[in-house]
Amino acid sequence: MRILFTIAILLVVVTVAGAIYFRQVPMPAEVWHVEPADVTPPTTPNYVLLGGRRGPAPPRAALAATADLLEQAATAEGATRIAGDLSDGHATYVARTALMGFPDAVSIRLVPDGDATRVEIFSRSRYGQSDLGANRARVNRWIAPLAP
Questions:
Q1: What contacts 56, CB < 8 A, 6 or more positions away?
Q2: In whole angstroms, what is the distance from residue 40 CA to residue 73 CA?
Q3: Is 26 in a helix, a strand, or coil?
């Protein structure tokens, strides 16, 4: 019984230490701030890339309105901007998972398309082979307010 208790305590300590580490790990802008349209898709399935032809259908909104809606979505989820500014058409955010704080980078490019704005997004996990759908769910939540 004492061994099980010791193992349980060790698991709790390792989990807490991991959560602290992943919440503090740096995400340098020079590495993570990229153009979604220029990205070569990773070999792991822990990303979502909507760019170029894969970008969402243009919403019926100007660049400034689109930038405001995306900035609000990012802020509402606690994402931190590490580079760029959506009002200039390109920004990268770090969003962290709720439980362990795993960092995900989300690069967004806004491309004027007539009276509308095309949104290109590359959301990817820094760690792991699979993100269990976290990046896709995040992108869907962030672009949902843009739907006509």
A1: 50, 118, 119, 143, 146
A2: 26
A3: coil
Distance CA 16, CA 123 (A): 26
**Which of these CATH numbers, 3.30.565.10, 3.30.1330.30, 3.30.310.80, 1.10.3720.10, describes 2-146?**
3.30.310.80
What DSSP string runs through 44-111?
Answer: SS-EEEE-GGGSPPPPSS-HHHHHHHHHHHHHHTT-EEEEEEGGGTEEEEEEE-TTT--EEEEEEEEE
Q: Say whether pLDDT at 53 is over 70.
A: no
Q: How many CB atoms lie within 10 A of CB 8?
A: 10
**Residues 3/108, Cβ–Cβ less than 8 Å:** no
pLDDT tens digits along 22-45: 888 899 999 999 999 899 888 989
Residue 21 token pair: 């580490």
Residues 85-139: tens digit of each pLDDT: 999 999 999 999 887 788 999 999 999 888 888 899 999 999 988 888 999 999 9
